[in-house]
Amino acid sequence: MINIITTSLPFSMREFEITSFAQSLVEAGAACVQQHEVSSTFKWQGEIEHEKEWSLRIKVSIKKNDSVIQVIKNLHPYDVPQIIVHSVEASSDYEDWVYSF
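RE: above sequence
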């Protein structure tokens, strides 16, 4: 089993800032961070909001999960960052690669 953590960042952040954020996650133990643009609709402070954001999909071993989440919490600009963790099965070769970090 590996974990996939998802979070989002404001679209106002430039791509080099997203890359720097992702690099910090890899330095904390993530095996891979994928980022892409998304459109989000959500309620915030009683209002419905529509925003473009960066979505990050982070692959991490279960043993490195907490350290990666701590980096997200420390660096994230949102008051309430999205941190969703899914435990998933992966091919044995991919799982071995993720756990090699």
